[in-house]
User: Fold this.
Amino acid sequence: MSNGDAPAHADRPPATTTDSGIPAPSDEYSLTVGPSGPIALHDHYVVQKMQHFNRERVPERVVHAKGSGAHGFFEVTEDVSQFTKAGFLAIGKRTPVFARFSTVAGEQGFPDTVRDPRGFALKFYTDDGNFDLVGNNTPVFFVRDPSKFQDFIHSQKRLADTGMRSNQMQWDFWTLSPESAHQVTILMSDRGTPRTYRHMNGYSSHTYSWVNTDGERFWVKYHFKTVQGAENFTDEQAGAMAGEDPDFHRRDLRQAIADGGSPEWRLEVQIMPFADAADYRFNPFDLTKVWPHGDYPPITVGRLVLDRNPANFFAEVEQAGFSPANLVPGTGLSPDKMLMGRIFSYHDTHLHRIGPNYEQLPINAPRVPVHSYNKDAQMTYHHSGAQPVYAPNSAGGPQADAERAPDLGWPVESGELGRYAYDKHAEDDDFGQAGTLVREVMSDLDREHLVANIVAHASDEVADDMQQRVIAYWAKVDPQIAAEVAVGLGKDNGASPDGPASAEAAALVSARANRA
Ligand code: NDP
Assistant:
């Protein structure tokens, strides 16, 4: 018989085989000439084992490398048909979902609890193809133009010479990029160290669009609010946990689901009528801004529930490929430039990381038939058979149908090709919403922790002149926070009418702020 499943060996485990299914001769000894002799090259079993091992890793994601995932579903509980015709957003509809949570800057083995934003990526396997929301646990981002993204990430990663992370480098980038202030305020608050993945919110951050059956369009922001409640570690607790259990968030998610915990999030959306965007007080497409809830109150849509752990980490978490380009009819993009950059970038990184047919893998494959003229390439598994390989054709091949496709446009003023900052809206600036967060949302304890977290971060191998810039940066967010940071950094030169930072640092930060 060909392997250990044969009835004669029913009481034994299955025989080890080569990847071609041939029974392997030994799990312990390579083929040698006598007990001490050289190893024979034609021991293909051992040779192939080594070869495969050497190729086990696919490149890790440059960002969001360390992630954890779970399966579940999204269920629509409220009627939002006046805003969107998307089938998966129809009341009562249940759609299977895969979620992947991640840190941003750390590599695969990095501790889970280190201060960082967290990724919150969702793949909805809808009846109209996959819908991906690739969000974060923060409603805003550090930059608003994709040309700055790579530089931002480099500043969070490692120095070229030493291979070390550097707080000096991070503050250098942030203080020279004042649009980062809102996100850095959230990052330096205790929300930068969430207690678990279950205890954090997820935000689309970007503005997207919806269209209803009458063709009426709306701008939309998605917020997944944790039903477990938002809970965070203090800086000290997060640091201690990094040493105690580097995989704490991964373990927590897995254990909670294994124990039947089924963590849950409530999807709320903010809806802006299409015409409001032009003269809204903030540029609604600027990724460094939120829409205050008082202007556009959250509307509940449904619930996201995670109730099944992956059976294979590599196949489901590591090979998962999310892309904000995956939008289904009834949903669309917006003129957010960061979103447009990501539309290209995410698919591209998966082509490099996993391969040109990554969407054929079970975790990425839509649960609806794919009728595409893309063909072949490495590791193609699904072949079209005797189908035409070009369009248009007269052989009855699939035909694109604008009526069924998800393209959602918006009016664009004609203009000259060039490199522009966004159009300014009345209240646009780099620091205002960060200041609102500090003064109007945070409690005294939150502010106390914010200052302590900034001081701890900016004390760790950050040079004196950079600390002056840190103080000048916080002076733009909130003078009181800046004064306390200055005291914490031992730089209380606060008699200056312009704030506690050195005049030179204050001038540099001001000059970089709100540049056209
Ligand atoms: P609201 O008072 O209506 O809402 C405040 C929001 O802040 C809540 O969603 C709350 O989330 C969240 N929050 C609380 N603490 C923190 C923190 N440390 N870091 C980040 N978010 C926190 O205020 P507005 O809508 O008028 O916005 C005021 C400020 O709140 C904004 O400038 C922005 O910084 C922040 N914010 C606003 C959001 C929005 O979409 N409007 C979303 C998140 C933050 P929770 O309910 O989970 O406690």
The CA atoms of residues 176 and 511 lie 9 Å apart. The chain is about 25% helix and 15% strand. The two ends are 76 Å apart (CA to CA). Residues 39-161+195-360 form a domain with the Catalase HpII,  Chain A, domain 1 fold (CATH 2.40.180.10).
